[in-house]
Amino acid sequence: MKTRYILGSLGLAAALTLTACGGTSGNATAAQSAATVEVQADPSGALAFQQTTIETAAGQPVSVNFGNPAPLPHNWVLVQPGQEQAVVDATAAKNGEAAGVPGVIAASAVLNANGKETVAVPAQSAGTYPYICTVPGHYAAGMKGTLTVK
C-alpha cells in the first residue's frame, strides 16, 4: 500500500514537472505563444480603422486588442480571403454580430464607444487576410484592413 502511494506521488510529481516545463525548449514554447497587436476604430467617428495593415508570423496565434474610441459601434472581424461580402451579408440581420458566421476566422463583439476586447486569432498560414467591420454599412463605407501573415 505504501509503495503504491510513493510511486503514485512520484508519478504525479514527474507529470507536474514535465507540464510546467512544457517538455520543450524555451524557443519552441516562445514560438507557440501569441503575439499581440493593437487595432482601433478611428476615434473621430470616420468609418475606418486606425491601423489598416497589421502583420504576424505564420503558424503563430495572435491576440488582437481591439478598441473602439469612436462614438459609433464597431467590431473587428477577420475573414477568409474573398468572403468579405458574404460575411457582411450574413451579419446584416444580426446587427453586425459575426460569431458563428461561415467565413469568419475570429471576431470581436460589436462594441459601443470606449469598448475594448481581445480577440484570439488562431495560427494562420502565410498569406493576406482581410479584416472588416460588419456593423451594417461600415464595410461598404471602407472600414477594412489586412492582416499579413509571413
Descriptive report:
With 150 residues, this protein is of the alpha/beta class. The protein has 2 domains: 1-31; 34-149, Immunoglobulin-like (Sandwich), CATH 2.60.40. It has 3 helices and 8 strands; from the N terminus they run H-H-E-E-E-E-H-E-E-E-E. The strands form 2 sheets. It has a 5-stranded mixed sheet with strand order 2-8-7-4-5, with no helix packed on it. A 3-stranded mixed sheet has the order 1-3-6, with no helix packed on it. The chain is globular and about 35 Å long.
Q: Helicity range of the residues?
A: 10-25%
The sequence of SSEs as H and E is HHEEEEHEEEE
Number of domains: 2
What is the tally of helical segments?
Answer: 3
Strand content: 25-35%
Topology:
Blueprint: H1 2-21, H2 26-32, E1 35-40, E2 53-56, E3 62-68, E4 77-79, H3 84-91, E5 104-107, E6 115-121, E7 127-132, E8 144-149
What is shown here, in short?
The protein is an alpha/beta fold. It has helices spanning 2-21, 26-32, 84-91; strands at residues 35-40, 53-56, 62-68, 77-79, 104-107, 115-121, 127-132, 144-149.
